[in-house]
Amino acid sequence: MKQANQLSRLRQFLLYISISLFSVCALMGIMAALSGPVDWRILTTTLFTAVASLFAMGGVARLEDDQRLIKTLSVMSLIVNALWLLGALILVWDLLSSLGICNTNISSEFPGGYDYMLCGQLEEILTKLTVTVFIITSLTALIAKFLSLNAKNSIISGLVTLTISSASLLSLVGLSILWQKHGGDVLTANWQLLTIFGILTVFGLVVTPVLMRAQAYKQKAQAVSDEERRRLRQEIEQEVRAELAAEQQSDKPEDSKDGAE
Predict the structure, then answer these.
(1) Backbone angles phi, psi at 168, to 5 degrees
(2) pLDDT of residue 107
């Protein structure tokens, strides 16, 4: 019980953080449109942190689930969520240069670092790793969320399977394009697969929650109707008992009169 309360408080805290950060992003965008340029690093950092907070909030919420698979996926999602945010912040704030790992301002080698070409390669690899971890975070969060749905309907179960499969294939195709040496050619060759899997994934993400709400509404309506029938049955039974009791009371004087005679 105590652990559940702590997770609930943490989830509320992450929700407040996400709303605040998205509000700051919107405000900074409005200020940039009205007054002038805003430091894109601050804006990007705020946006990335808000997205990471949303992922973390979903992962924390599913830690209360009884299924071990969902808990494992939630923990994995929280870990990789922190990793992609760390990589994104390193790239946004150019921390590779600040930490002395590389210096892109000079093209010649310097002691303890890399030359300009190697710095570019290192940043490219870090960018690909960050995008890869972000895709893994999104996929694990989606799988954990859809597996936690109480899909008793066969149609909803099929949609859950379709969405998870489409999202997994979409992620695999995206990662293959990302890590190919000639990514543009691979993208051109596989754009149809990306389109198909993307449409199926979006379809499942949109339709499944709608059907879940419809199922919940139907169950609620059925529960209300069952309660109404139960109440009517109880009223009828009470009326019948009252009539029987009245008949018994009316029969008692006649029995006593016959006994006196």
Answers:
(1) -65, -45
(2) 44
Query: What is the longest distance spanned by two Cα atoms in the chain?
Result: 131
Residue 110 clears pLDDT 50, i.e. is over it: no
Question: What confidence tens digit (pLDDT) does each residue in 233-259 have?
Answer: 788 888 878 877 777 777 655 555 555
Q: Write b or e for each residue in 26-48: b if 16 or more Cβ atoms lie within 10 A of its Cβ, otherwise e.
A: eebeeeeeeeeeeeeeebbbbbb
Spatial distance between the Cα atoms of 86 and 17, rounded to a whole number of angstroms? 17
CB atoms within 10 A of CB 143: 20
This prediction's pTM: 0.79
For the segment 1-26, the average pLDDT, to the nearest whole number, is 81
Q: Which string of b and e fits 157-177 if b means at least 16 CB within 10 Å?
A: eebbebbbebbebbbebbbeb
The whole-number pLDDT of residue 217 equals 81
Residue located via tokens 């695999």: 172
Of 22, 78, 30, 12, which Cα lies nearest the Cα of 46?
A: 22
Please state the domain extents for the chain: 10-148, 151-261
Side chain identity, residue 130: T
Q: Which of 49, 71, 52, 53 is nearest to 3 (CA)?
A: 71
